């Protein structure tokens, strides 16, 4: 049975046609935006940093940045697209480096009670295994007494306001994954790191909010499944996001290749 993720469910909300192309027709492309490429390299650098911390060492900043540069070089490929034509690849490379530098300065000596990086979650929202979810927690902290923190790194420009963070479903979904494990849980804090600005935003969910979210995700999954089995419509929703979309050839509302990607 198919597993759903936060990003697949978000894709469905933003553009059902893109959801169909990517997740039902399984059309995979090597293309990715430079923003996504940079974000992955920054995540790897912070993962390296905290893996060293978990091993009892605090890496020098230069070593963390060396990791970033070598991954950037080794993983660079020809299908990376730049939509904002005024920016070069080097601009993004430096932007990522700045995110790491800002983070390093702010959190040295990294005394957070981290228990793991890039933790894969596979869980179900029900007892029958009908609603299977997957996700990855960037960083998980635990004080040893049942108080947990789910941390997420954002390398994009956008910063969530407190109100938006309190309504954001991604980390709340990961909280459900954490709660589904057999762990002592007294509290769970959701923490976003907006790396371009060095801003941290936190949010806490009530039991009711978590239950309500579970119900609404189940409904969304039911809706997708009923469209698939009844041959329902997956309409294309044009938006600014089309500029970053690699599905123009398959999209019923567009034609040719995406002209915004250089
Ligand atoms: S180009 Fe736009 S409308 Fe078409 S699939 Fe992509 S996001 Fe949807």
**Shape, please?**
globular
Ligand types: iron/sulfur cluster
**Rg, Cα atoms, Å:** 20 Å
Elements, N to C (H/E): EHHEHHEHEEEHHEEH
Average the pLDDT over all residues and give the rounded result: 95
DSSP helix fraction: 40-55%
Number of strands: 8
| Count of domain modules | 2
Uncertain segments are none
Kindly report how far apart the N and C termini lie: 38 Å
What count of helical segments does DSSP give? 8
Largest sheet: 6 strands, mixed
Structural class: alpha/beta
Structure described in brief:
This protein has 262 residues and is an alpha/beta fold.
Task: Walk me through the topology.
Blueprint: E1 3-5, H1 6-14, H2 16-24, E2 32-33, H3 34-54, H4 61-75, E3 80-81, H5 89-107, E4 114-124, E5 132-142, E6 147-154, H6 162-167, H7 170-180, E7 187-194, E8 199-203, H8 207-230
Parallel strand pairs: 1-5, 2-3, 6-7
Antiparallel strand pairs: 4-5, 5-6, 7-8
Helix pairs in contact: 1-2, 3-4, 3-5, 4-5
Tell me about this structure.
There is one protein chain. By secondary structure, the chain is α/β, with parallel strands linked by helices. The chain folds into two domains: 32-107, no CATH class; 113-230, no CATH class. Helix content is 44%, strand content 19%. It contains eight helices and eight strands, in the order E-H-H-E-H-H-E-H-E-E-E-H-H-E-E-H. The protein has helices spanning 6-14, 16-24, 34-54, 61-75, 89-107, 162-167, 170-180, 207-230; strands at residues 3-5, 32-33, 80-81, 114-124, 132-142, 147-154, 187-194, 199-203. The strands form two sheets. Strands 1, 4, 5, 6, 7 and 8 form a six-stranded mixed β-sheet that branches. Strands 2-3 form a two-stranded parallel ribbon. Helix 1 crosses helix 2 (16-24), helix 3 (34-54) crosses helix 4 (61-75) and helix 3 (34-54) packs parallel to helix 5. The longest helix is centred in the C-terminal third of the chain and has 24 residues, at 207-230. The protein is globular. The two termini are 38 Å apart. The model has no long low-confidence stretch (mean pLDDT 95). The structure holds iron/sulfur cluster (SF4). Residues 15, 17-18, 236-238, 241-242, 245, 247-248, 251, 253-254 line the site of iron/sulfur cluster (SF4).
